[in-house]
Amino acid sequence: MNRLTRLGTTLLLALALVTPGCQYAKDRLLDASDVIDIKYGYAVGVGVKVEATNYVGVGIGWGLTPKSREWYGRRSHVSYDQEFMHFVLAGRDGSERAWGEPGKDGTDHYNMVLPINIAQLDHGTPPMLQRWRVGFELLLPMAHGGLYLNLGELVDFFAGLATIDIADDDGTPKSEQYGDHFIEELEVEDA
User: Fold this and answer.
1) Cα(64)–Cα(127) distance, rounded to whole angstroms?
2) For labeling, which of 35, 46, 55, 187 is most exposed (least CB within 10 Å)?
3) Is 110 helix (H, G, I), strand (E, B) or coil?
4) Long-range pairs for 5-11: beta carbons < 8 A, 24 or more residues apart
5) pTM > 0.90
6) Is 77 exposed, middle or buried (0-12, 13-18, 19+ CB in 10 A)?
């Protein structure tokens, strides 16, 4: 394939991606972007945590994260006033702000005795597909960040090539959030 043919193919592909009628290509690009999840915010403290799914993780450190945003595939969750406290085989990070019931934040993690996150066993957010990811988070004196490989979204990406949408997110913009309605209710109650 010569340079001119490659350039033409690239231009046609780029044009197809920005054309409104090419929803398939847009959804595949968004599916590809969902494979890597990030977490970011600001913090006071020092710590690190490594996770092999939302159910198993170990960490060390202590800190407070007044506000952070965490992506789970196509959607994100903004957390407020969370505490990060891990001592290798026992730890907690989460808050009292809830997604479904008092004391149950969708991102709560309680690792007790073993590095198994018992909080994820009793509530449904994020959805099951989003809980299968591996990565780490880091707490520094002024910043909080994390990077994860979302294995569920990786499967969704490959299934999407055959137009199978197991994440049920085709046509959904990248900016949607989980839990907005519940956070708004809490803010009204707190006022």
Assistant:
1) 26
2) 187
3) strand
4) none
5) no
6) buried
